Amino acid sequence: xxxxxxxxxxxxxxxxxxxxxxxxxxxxxxxxxxxxxxxxxxxxxxxxxxxxxxxxxxxxxxxxxxxxxxxxxxxxxxxxxxxxxxxxxxxxxxxxxxxxxxxxxxxxxxxxxxxxxxxxxxxxxxxxxxxxxxxxxxxxxxxxxxxxxxxxxxxxxxxxxxxxxxxxxxxxxxxxxxxxxxxxxxxxxxxxxxxxxxxxxxxxxxxxxxxxxxxxxxx
Length: 219
Known about the structure:
The chain is α+β, with helices and mostly antiparallel strands and 219 residues long. The protein is built from six helices and six strands; from the N terminus they run βββαβββααααα.
C-alpha cells in the first residue's frame, strides 16, 4: 500500500493508508472497539464515517454485496473488507512484523480458534446485551444471561491462562485484543467481568493486556 499521510498522535507518527476508510452504522458500534484498538496497535489511522441504517452509502463505498450494509466496511484502493473480525485480521496482517496473527503457523491456527470461540461464547452475548440496552427496554434478564455466559467463559479462560501471559504464545495477538474489547464492553454494560477472587489467572491477564493496550493507545 502507499502510505502518503502522516499524523502525529502522542509520540508516534500514525501512517494513514491512502484512501483507507471505515464505514459503519451506529447500531454496530459495539463491534468496532477491537477494530480501532487493532488499528492503533498497528499505528494505522483510519478515516471513519457513520452511515445510519436506511441512509445511502457514500458513492466511494458502495457495498460489494447486500450483506455488507449490515457490517462495518473497510474501503481500500483495491476493494473492501467487511465484518469487524475480518477487518482486524486484515489490519494485523498488514503489519506482519508485529505478529498479531501469531508468530508461527501453529500459533496462527490457535489465534483463529480463539477468535471463533470468542465470537460464539462472549461477543455474541455482549452484542445482544448492548442492543437490548440501546433499545431502552429493561435489560435485567439479558444482563443475568450475559453474566452467566461470562462466568462460564471465565472458567475456561482462567484455566487456559494458568501458566500463560497471553491467549496464544508469549505476546499480544488479535485474540487478546478481541477478548479485551469484549470484556470491556461487558463491564461498561454492568456485567461482572473481573471477579479476581474466582479467576486469578484471568485477572492477571486482564492487568497485563490492559497495560499493553493502553500503552499502544497512548503511544
